[in-house]
Design goal:
The protein has 245 residues and is α/β, with parallel strands linked by helices. It has 8 helices and 4 strands. 41% of the residues lie in helices and 8% in strands.
């Protein structure tokens, strides 16, 4: 929808805006640093089309200090991200958008939860902000046979998705399978390179373009379901004491 004129968008008068959020960061020796942004952009198009929503172009930079160590990763401070997202969403509210769906396509945005909670606490019921995080759907994708292995970073799922939309940027001959022997929370104690010398956390050798297309389509469906469930939950709330939250 962002390819339309302002008058055309006004005539359509969508009530929902979609904001995909990615990251510019290392993805091992085989994937481009644009991986999270490219995935966010593709999912954003699919979700917005399914929901008839206004699509904000995917944001390429967020918070990713856990990827520090090699050139090419770009981040902002969490407080900056919080304020930037607040400003964007408040500008959408001022224009009459009633609902904002955030598609989080990078796992390291730890300030996203308080951001969404605060926006809803301050603005429900005039504005409802819902979050769909792509990583939450990995167990479902494995259950349905679309993924064979757990997915965290530059593994089977992300590699498959980039193979599906930009195969020339993928170097499968350089792909390294690696699953660290520490849990994900240890990224709070050191960069990913402390846990994985290659910067990979997964099994990219299992990736195929065919899997990538199926993962995109199913993830978009699951994101739409999650956003609609969250919006329905907020719409059903009535005033409790002095609060609508």
């Amino acid at each position: 929808m962002y390819r339309k004129t302002a008058d055309e968008i006004t005539a359509l008068d969508p009530e929902i805006a979609i904001i995909p959020v990615g990251s510019l960061e290392q993805h091992g020796p085989h994937l481009p640093v644009m991986t999270d942004w490219a995935i966010a952009a593709e999912l954003g198009k699919r979700v917005a089309e399914k929901m008839g929503a206004f699509l904000v172009p995917a944001l390429p930079v967020s918070t990713c200090r856990e990827q520090m160590g090699k050139k090419g990763s770009v981040w902002m401070e969490p407080v900056t991200f919080y304020q930037m997202m607040t400003d964007i969403i408040m500008s959408l509210k001022l224009q009459g958008f009633k609902k904002v769906g955030i598609l989080q396509c990078h796992g390291g945005i730890f300030i996203m939860t308080p951001l969404v909670r605060d926006l809803n606490a301050r603005n429900n019921p005039d504005l409802m902000v819902a979050l769909a995080y792509s990583g939450d759907f990995s167990p479902k994708l494995r259950e349905e046979g679309l993924l064979e292995t757990p997915e965290l970073h530059a593994g089977e799922g992300e590699t498959s998705k980039i193979l599906a939309i930009d195969p020339e940027s993928v170097h499968m001959d350089r792909a390294v399978d690696y699953v660290p022997d520490v849990p994900r929370p240890y990224l709070s104690y050191g960069s990913i390179f402390r846990a994985s010398p290659s910067g990979v956390w997964g099994i990219p050798s299992k990736a195929t373009a065919e899997k990538g297309e199926k993962i995109f389509e199913r993830t978009a469906e699951l994101m739409v379901e999650e956003l609609n469930k969250a919006f329905s939950y907020m719409e059903s709330k009535e005033k409790f004491g002095y609060s609508y939250f």
